[in-house]
Amino acid sequence: MSKKRPAVFPVPPPPADPADWTGVRTSRIARAAEETVFVQGDPANSVMYVDDGALRLSVLSHAGKEAVIAVLDAGSFFGEGSLAGQTRRIATATAMTPSRIVVIKKPEMVRQLHARPRFADHFLRHMLTRNIRIEEDLIDQLFNSSEKRLARTLLRLARFGQPVASHRALPRVSQETLAEMVGTTRSRVNFFMNKFRKLGFVEYGYNGALKVNNALLSVVLRD
Fold first, then answer.
1. Structure pTM?
2. Residue extent(s) of CATH 1.10.10.10 domains in the chain
3. Phi/psi class of residue 210: alpha, beta or left (left: φ > 0; alpha: ψ in -120 to 50)?
4. Each residue of 164-190: pLDDT tens digit?
5. Between the N and C ends of the chain, which has fewer C-beta atoms within 10 Å?
C-alpha cells in the first residue's frame, strides 16, 4: 500500500517588521523591473535587504539552464552567504517590480550582529523562516505533483496566512518563471493556470495582474 503524500503548506512570511537601521552604515540602491541587483559570480561583499518591491534569485548551470530558487518581497534579507565565507555570489538577483534595496557591507553587518541583540534577533528570525521554507520546498519537490507544487508556489507568492483580504495580488511573474520555480514545463503551468482560473482559484485583472483566492489551498490538501 502506497504511503500518503505529505501535504506541504506554504510557509507564510513573518509579519511586516521593518529592520531598524538606526546607527547602521548603509547605502541604498533602486532597480527598475527586470534590472539586476547582482549577478552570479560577482564578489560577495555585502548583505542586502528588500526595503520595497520584489526580487527573484536564479541560478545558471554550466549547461546554460536557469532555475529560479526564491522570490523575495519587502522585509527579506538576501546575499547573507557572504557572512559564511562565500566570496562570490552563487545566484543572480533580479528585480521583479521597481524595488528599493538596502546594502550593508559585510564588516558593518558583522559588527551590528555582535553589538545589537535586537537586530541580530530580527536577522535570525529571517534565517530560520528561510530555512523552514527551503526544507518544505525540498519535501514538496520530492513527493508532490507539479499541480500541487504550483498551487503552493502561488499561495506563497500571495503571502498566504497573512491577515489581509482573501484575494491577494501577486508581483508580476511570468509562466516561464513559475515553471522554473515549480520544476516543470511552461505548457504544464499554462494548463494548470487555466484549470485554476476556471475553478475560480485565480483571476487575471485587466492589466494582467494575477489574484489568488485562498480556496486554492484545497489543491494542496487534496490527496
1. 0.76
2. 145-221
3. beta
4. 554 567 777 888 888 888 888 999 999
5. N
pLDDT score recorded for residue 2:
47
91-94-98 Cα angle (round to 5)? 155
What pLDDT is stored for residue 8 in this prediction?
52
CATH number for 27-130: choose from 1.20.1250.20, 3.60.110.10, 2.130.10.10, 2.60.120.10: 2.60.120.10
d(Cα 50, Cα 90) in Å, to the nearest integer? 18
**Residue 186: helix, strand or coil by DSSP?**
helix
CATH 2.60.120.10 spans which residues of the chain?
27-130
As a CATH number, domain 145-221 is 1.10.10.10
Q: Which of 135, 46, 56, 127 is nearest to 95 (CA)?
A: 56
d(CA 31, CA 67): 21
* Residue type (1 letter), 207: N
Q: Which three cell numbers stand for residue 43?
A: 564578489
Q: What residue has cell string 528599493?
A: 100
Residue type at position 88: R
Cell reading at 152 = 503552493
